[in-house]
């Protein structure tokens, strides 16, 4: 082989070696150095991000005070906005593993203790309130519950350092909840009102008086857990939505409660409903979504829909499991194992915002 042939072969080897090196990927987390950039056939000038961005887009930079390092190892200050409706610190978002951000909630049993007990047919589990109040309220905020029932919302609210206004139609239940709060020594953080939540003219002033008692103009969160139409009849009292003669009548009454909620909730704050569907004459009635639509009519904007299992919050239904299974097989339907938690927001730009006025209504 001549010297010229050897030189050509050597040049070819160098050329192949250089091409192979260019195909070697930079390690995923490796810093961008001059050598590995040039091995990719890119000049240092072309590869570096613009100085003003430092490897982060404007969209990624929010508005608070934490620092991160970009790929070049340069410390960048990341600003994140503080939430106006929650105590959650976004700079420490990894520190809240118990707060769910998923739309499927599964609970094996009902939480007991700290005043909670399964003492009322159809009451919701405390874990729902724990999640909602953690996400959408701050310490000291006022929670308004317009279907107080046995007081799950009131107990969990005061346990978490919130204040609560509860409205309940049945006098025996208002006395019962007031007694439970007194046992905990938390009566000063709660106002229990006996009244019809759908009656804005009569019950509205009582809610206003309760807000004034707490030196507030509006509530900061509303929770609604209405009867699931006529599935369980809670009383024979006038105004009890579980006694309605039709689903349409129930929905009309529920919409009046939604209007009451909208009236007393601060703009930009959140409300939630826990509700399930029903069967009537062999037909599925999508009660949950019908209630959602009535909340929208009242002015609320739907934010999220959560599906939750109903194990652990139904008294005695387990004993009838075989009967329900037989009925499902015979009727061609499925037994409900879920309910919904709908999340709503009251828009910031609403007119007619509730203002604090002197009220002659008495707190009951």
Give a quick rundown of the structure.
The chain is of the alpha/beta class. The protein contains ten helices and twelve strands.
* Helicity level: 25-40%
Please tell me what the overall shape is.
globular
What is the alpha-carbon Rg in Å? 30 Å
* The CATH class of the largest domain: Alpha Beta
What CATH architecture of the largest domain would you give? 3-Layer(aba) Sandwich
Number of DSSP helical runs: 10
Number of strands: 12
Low-confidence residue ranges: 13-64, 352-364
CATH topology of the largest domain: Rossmann fold
Strand content: 15-25%
Structural class: alpha/beta
* Biggest β-sheet description: 8 strands, mixed
Overall structural domain count: 3
Strand order of the largest sheet: 3-11-12-8-7-4-5-6
Please name the fourth-level CATH homologous superfamily of the largest domain.
Vaccinia Virus protein VP39
Distance between the termini: 110 Å
Secondary-structure element order, N to C: HHHEEEHEHEHEHEHEEEHEHE
Average residue pLDDT: 79
Describe the structure.
The protein is an alpha/beta fold. It folds into 3 domains: 48 residues, no CATH class; 32 residues, no CATH class; 256 residues, Vaccinia Virus protein VP39 (Rossmann fold), CATH 3.40.50. It contains 10 helices and 12 strands. An 8-stranded mixed β-sheet has the order 3-11-12-8-7-4-5-6, sandwiched between helices. The protein has a two-stranded antiparallel ribbon with strand order 1-2. The C terminus is likely disordered.
């Amino acid at each position: 082989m001549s010297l010229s042939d050897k030189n050509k072969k050597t040049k070819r080897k160098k050329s192949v070696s250089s091409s192979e090196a260019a195909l070697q990927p930079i390690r995923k987390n490796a810093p961008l150095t001059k050598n590995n950039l040039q091995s990719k056939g890119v000049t240092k000038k072309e590869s570096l991000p613009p100085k003003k961005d430092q490897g982060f887009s404007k969209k990624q930079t929010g508005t608070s005070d934490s620092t991160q390092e970009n790929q070049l190892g340069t410390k960048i200050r990341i600003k994140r906005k503080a939430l106006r409706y929650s105590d959650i610190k976004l700079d420490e978002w990894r520190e809240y593993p118990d707060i769910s951000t998923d739309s499927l909630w599964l609970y094996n049993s009902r939480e007991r203790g700290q005043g909670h007990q399964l003492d009322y047919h159809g009451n919701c589990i405390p874990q729902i309130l724990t999640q909602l109040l953690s996400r959408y309220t701050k310490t000291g905020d006022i929670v308004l519950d317009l279907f107080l029932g046995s007081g799950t919302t009131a107990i969990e609210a005061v346990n978490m350092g919130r204040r609560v206004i509860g409205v309940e139609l049945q006098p025996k239940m208002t006395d019962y909840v007031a007694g439970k709060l007194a046992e905990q020594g938390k009566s000063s953080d709660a106002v229990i009102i006996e009244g019809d939540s759908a009656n804005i003219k009569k019950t509205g002033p009582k809610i206003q008086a309760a807000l004034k008692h707490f030196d507030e103009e509006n509530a900061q969160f509303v929770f609604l857990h209405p009867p699931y139409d006529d599935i369980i009849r809670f009383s024979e009292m006038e105004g009890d939505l579980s006694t309605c003669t039709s689903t349409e009548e129930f929905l009309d009454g529920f919409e009046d409660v939604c209007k009451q909620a909208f009236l007393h909730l601060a703009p930009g704050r959140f409300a939630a409903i826990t509700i399930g569907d029903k069967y009537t004459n062999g037909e599925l009635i999508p009660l949950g979504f019908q209630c959602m639509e009535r909340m929208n009519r009242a002015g609320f904007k739907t934010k999220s829909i959560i599906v939750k299992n109903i194990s652990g919050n139904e008294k005695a239904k387990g004993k009838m499991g075989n009967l329900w299974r037989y009925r499902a097989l015979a009727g061609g339907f499925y037994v409900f194992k879920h309910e919904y938690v709908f999340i709503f927001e009251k828009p910031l730009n609403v007119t007619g915002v509730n203002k604090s006025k002197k009220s002659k209504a008495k707190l009951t």
